[in-house]
Amino acid sequence: MNRKILVTGGAGYIGSHCCKLLAENGYKPIVYDNLSTGDRSFVKWGPLIEGDIRDRERIERVIASESPAAVMHFAALLSVEESVSAPERYWSVNVGGTQSLLDAMRANSCDKLVFSSTCAVYGQPERLPINEETPKDPINPYGACKLAAEWMMEHYDRAHGLRSVRLRYFNACGADPGGEVGYHSAGPQLLPLVLEVASGRRPNISVYGVDYPTPDGTAVRDYIHVTDLATAHLAALEHLTKEGETLVVNLGTGHGVSVAEIIATAERVIGCEIPRVMAPRRKGDPAKLVADPTRAATTLGWRAERSNLGVVIGDAWRWHQARFGASIGPSGLERAAKNR
Questions:
Q1: With CB atoms 3.0 to 4.6 Å apart as the test, which of 19, 97, 124, 330 could cross-link to 29 if both were Cys?
Q2: Among residues 32, 90, 122, 142, which one is catalytic?
């Protein structure tokens, strides 16, 4: 059986965790990444091939030479805020790059794709929790680009038999419990920024919006541990290798957590105060996004197992200490250790 899997963006946060799980389950991940946001040191379980996702000829040569059984596609730009100010970059990479990949796969008869999509395709839904039939109405270019890529995959399946599982993530967080990979920079994600403050690398955290129609006025999201995301990708791959049909699946816990709750829980787990500054809402940010993960359970047999908020923060904090260093007292370390 062919165990090679091409992982675009495999040097990134979620892609690297998936590569580790693939290797642990007997697969050989082959990372294709331009390292614009990925980290070379995260490529530990197979070779790295450097290249841009928009380079159709290069991707086609890679697929032809490696003959992977399937592709996991993570390579993309990810910031909602940046997508509002620079939409042209997002259409070029997230849509144009995806078309380059699909065409290269088709040219080499590679017909299985697991796609990193997003709950941003739903925009600001009228009803919660969000299931896969919720109307798609993205309110920022990032969500619009991911939805366009999904539509493209749907048409490639109908016309060319290129099957895909499109995984609509809610908010990825945490780090590998074994400490081998995590996030390599704070980026736009809330929890790494909170930990930057906890470790003294940043003076405070900005809370964007305190007047949302939520219980405490801050935005609510469904936070899912990155290792839970990895297990969902493995389940999606195995679904396709067993000749399963194309699927669209939400990945979340079904439970919403506010920005204020994240900060308060981090203070309890780590044992230090996290100063915050209240700021206006950011353009393109909906008030509340919470998943209905029922389809993931029924079609892939998947459930979030490690996404308890205390566990998430404990794992992320241990990674942050190892990667960046920290200077909090022993009481905070003891609290973090209890969440292993």
A1: 19
A2: 142
